[in-house]
Automatic annotation (TrEMBL):
It comes from the Bacteria. This is Tagatose 1,6-diphosphate aldolase. InterPro entries: Acyl_CoA_acyltransferase, GNAT_dom. One of its GO terms (molecular function) is acyltransferase activity, transferring groups other than amino-acyl groups. It comes from Terriglobus roseus.
């Protein structure tokens, strides 16, 4: 399947460069891995799309994981990258996308909101879920529809 293989780019020049499809180490599901690059081709972070909807994905891990390198934080790269993955997730039949984050991670929570996701709940993690380290007892769950284009407003760095 050729969904999401060419570089994906937004109006502000953020580009997702496909790296590989492999099994996610902790969640054991097929995952597409991408490198986030800014308008100058500089790597600013990475993002991945998990292609199956297991109970661990739906409740704890989410369909999307992202990291923005420290020196590039504050530019809304993660929210923009999430939005670039929506059409491809829809192509894989994923609707809705679930994104999870630690409750104290305000930057990631804001990323979810900027991407157009809706907060659903904060749930307790069962410690027998081996993929999560102790000390993180809860996850915030956000739902993002892929059925239609998100009504999220453009983030500041996307505006021309």
């Amino acid at each position: 399947m050729n969904i999401l293989l060419p570089p994906l780019q937004d109006e502000g020049g953020l580009r997702l460069e496909y790296l590989e499809t492999a099994s996610h180490k902790g969640l054991c599901v097929p995952t597409r891995f991408y490198l986030m690059k800014d308008a100058h081709g500089v790597a600013v972070g990475d993002i991945n799309l998990r292609l199956h909807s297991t109970q661990q994905i739906l409740l704890y891990g989410g369909h999307i994981g992202y990291t923005v390198y420290p020196q590039f934080r504050g530019e809304h790269y993660a929210a923009r990258a999430v939005r670039l993955l929506i059409p491809g997730a829809r192509g894989f039949g994923i609707d809705p996308l679930w994104i999870t984050t630690d409750p104290e991670n305000t930057a990631s929570r804001r990323t979810c909101e900027l991407a157009g996701a809706v907060y659903v709940e904060t749930i307790q993690i069962l410690y027998h879920q081996a993929i999560f380290p102790e000390g993180r007892p809860c996850k915030c769950r956000y739902r993002l529809s892929t059925a239609h284009e998100s009504k999220a407003q453009k983030v500041p760095s996307e505006q021309p």
